[in-house]
Design a protein that fits this description.
The complex is a heterodimer of chains A (190) and B (96). Chain A has helices spanning 7-19, 25-44, 49-56, 59-78, 81-89, 96-121, 158-187, and strands at residues 129-134, 139-143, 150-152. Chain A has 190 residues and is mainly alpha-helical. In chain A, strand 1 and strand 2 (139-143) form a beta hairpin. The longest helix of chain A has 30 residues, at 158-187. Helix content of chain B is 56%, strand content 15%. The chains are: A mainly alpha (190), B alpha+beta (96).
Chain lengths: 190, 96
């Protein structure tokens, strides 16, 4: 094949560049040029252009691999919970680990939110709002209409307990999300 | 795959195509053609490796060479140690 790329190669590289839109101009240029040189080297080794392009996959799919990797790296590098959570959410449809992590973070958040709301409303109706233990041994946080067969466990301690729950949910949720994204990053090449 | 790549770069800087070939030939890994460069770019963004374009003095095409950074060298050592620990435990288990 001549050094000058033919129309098929040009189209592939143009589509790759479009697919790399989330990347910086410098990264786009580097990736496209590296891909072009890789394809030309393979052709010099005797492969056909079609075979090389087929081994790389469709341009938009190939570009999405770079975008996925960069998103993971950016999220892990920043350690910002929102960036990490969105990176995990975008992989939830193809990763059971991601689904489990999102479910865990959601459960932790709901639990912490229940304590915060309960603590916030406690001063307005202390007789009906709190952490309750029923006669059957089940726990309930929030408001109940008939407190006669329940025992309130925390009283004023609901405030520090709510703060502790928020802290635990934050720290544990963050750990779960970072661990999950690192696991996804390693698994993506196995 | 990451551990194989970092280990391979411990021998010195390499360019993408040669890395791919060595991972297939030397490590026996079935590495898909389209996976090596995204991984290289992620490791570079993460600071484990660095890259530079080199022009072939013999007039060949330029190539982008990848090399381990200090962080990558430390990660490589940690990953290799972990691999030996796991494989030793698994070997002992399978001998039982």
């Amino acid at each position: 094949m001549d050094e000058k790329p033919d129309a098929v190669l040009k189209t592939y590289l143009r589509q790759l560049r479009w697919g790399l839109a989330p990347q910086s101009a410098g990264d786009r240029d580097d990736i496209v040029e590296e891909t072009r040189l890789h394809i030309l080297a393979r052709i010099e080794q005797g492969q056909t252009l079609q075979a090389v392009l087929a081994s790389l996959g469709p341009a938009e799919v190939y570009a999405s691999r770079f975008n996925d990797e960069m998103e993971i790296t950016g999220a892990l590098g920043s350690e910002k919970p929102v960036a990490v959570l969105f990176a995990i959410l975008r992989r939830a449809h193809r990763s059971l680990t991601a689904v489990a992590a999102v479910a865990s973070v959601l459960a932790l958040s709901v639990c912490a939110l229940a304590f915060v709301v309960t603590a916030g409303l406690k001063p307005f109706d202390p007789e009906h709002i709190g952490l309750w233990l029923s006669s059957h041994g089940s726990l309930l946080v929030g408001s109940i209409s008939n407190p006669t067969d329940h025992r309130e466990l925390l009283g004023g301690w609901i405030y520090p307990v709510a703060a502790i729950m928020v802290t635990i949910a934050w720290l544990l949720g963050r750990l779960v999300m970072l661990w999950t994204l690192r696991k996804i990053a390693r698994k993506s090449h196995v | 795959m990451e551990i194989a790549l970092l280990h391979l770069l411990g021998d010195g800087p390499e360019y993408g195509l040669e890395i791919l070939e060595r991972m297939r030939r030397d490590a026996g890994l079935n590495v898909a053609e389209g996976t090596i460069y995204p991984l290289l770019h992620r490791l570079e963004k993460g600071g484990s490796i660095k890259s530079e374009w080199r022009v072939d003095p013999a007039g060949g095409r330029p190539r982008r060479y990848y090399a381990l950074t200090k962080l990558g060298t430390d990660e490589r050592q940690a990953l290799v140690a972990e691999w030996h620990r796991i494989s030793a435990a698994m070997n002992a288990f399978l001998r039982e």
